[in-house]
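Notes, p. 3: input format for complexes.
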Amino acid sequence: MKKALITGITGQDGYYLTKLLLKKGYEVHGIVRRNSQNSIGNLRYLSEEEREQITLHWGDITDNLFIDNVMKTVQPDEVYHLAAQSFVGFSFENPKFTYDVNIGGTLNMVNAVKEYSPSSRFYFAATSELYGKVQEVPQRETTPFYPRSPYGVSKLAGFWTVKNYRESYDLFMSNGILFNHESPMRGPEFVTRKITLAVARIYYNLQDCLELGNLNAKRDWGFAGDYVYGMWKMLQHSKPDDFVLATNETHTVREFAEEAFKVVGIDIEWEGEGVNEIGRDANSGKILVKVNPKYFRPCEVDLLIGDYSKAKRELGWEPKTKFKDLVKMMVEADLERVANGLKG
Ligand code: NAP
Ligand code: F7E
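Output follows (344 residues plus F7E):
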């Protein structure tokens, strides 16, 4: 039985990756940081049977003694390093913390592999945020990087740390340059989930209006369930390497919101510009979307669209879920959650 160690197991991708690896018969170990509620994040949505199969190790990735011990004890065949301070907006407010977790934590992980489990195959969660102010459209593995946030800079350091350990010590370490991927397990502060949750709450008259920041930002949004399969494929490959996973389709935040309201039968009509732009229910005239500058970022990534042809060619990976189906899946899941909440 193969053994996998997942950091960030309580997050969005941790949830889908755990399900995938359990299904494939892996012994799954996860790193969870302690909190006062002993909460296990998205792992609570796994079945009891699935949860019982996971071994949790309680600690923080910034603690190198803890990471060394886990690596020595578990001796995993595969390590999926997903843990990070992953919210770009928050990284502007807390750059030091973001660097400590995303750079320091990643260094702890690769070093523990080198010292205590050098035959482990290692996956690092790099990101399309490395491309930031894009130097080429669409972005691929050879596109020069230009990060635009403390988060992006921290992940750039992580990317190069992984590559440097791979080249210096002959370790199997791969970088997944993943474009935005979403799901019903997405944190509620990220724009897609913020929108789908608001649509469900507006539908049930629990909220009047949705406030957003930059409606013009364009993202390449895929489904997290498809992307964790790509992570696994990278570690089954004949050699370690760096791969873009994306859909090669891009949409504005405005389009995402429009599509999400459509799922509950509301057509949005837009008026005005910039901070004065509003979205009205075309039927009732009610204002459902407003712009609030507090959600603007000091530096924005305007356009992301990824070219995943290398992953397709070398790994046989392709995204399966289309944009409209992703939006529908997320709105429907939030409608159900909000309805269940109403039932108490
Ligand atoms: P997420 O939902 O924010 O999950 C992050 C995970 O990291 C959570 O389990 C969190 O634990 C854990 N974590 C944070 N700081 C930690 C620390 N100091 N010690 C131990 N665990 C810590 O992120 P995601 O969307 O699943 O993304 C997974 C990874 O892919 C992240 O590295 C992210 O930066 C990267 N990525 C994401 C996307 C995307 O679109 N989703 C795209 C490219 C790259 P808590 O539950 O305790 O907070
Ligand atoms: O923002 C704009 C915002 O926070 C997307 C992380 O998983 O993907 C994610 O980073 C866009 C930005 O994700 C709001 O300005 C408008 O242009 O959902 P987001 P992100 O910054 O793209 C990458 C690939 C990662 O690696 C990250 O870990 O939407 N936007 N209005 C808004 N964003 C938020 N959060 N909230 C708003 O109200």
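The CA atoms of residues 234 and 315 lie 7 Å apart.
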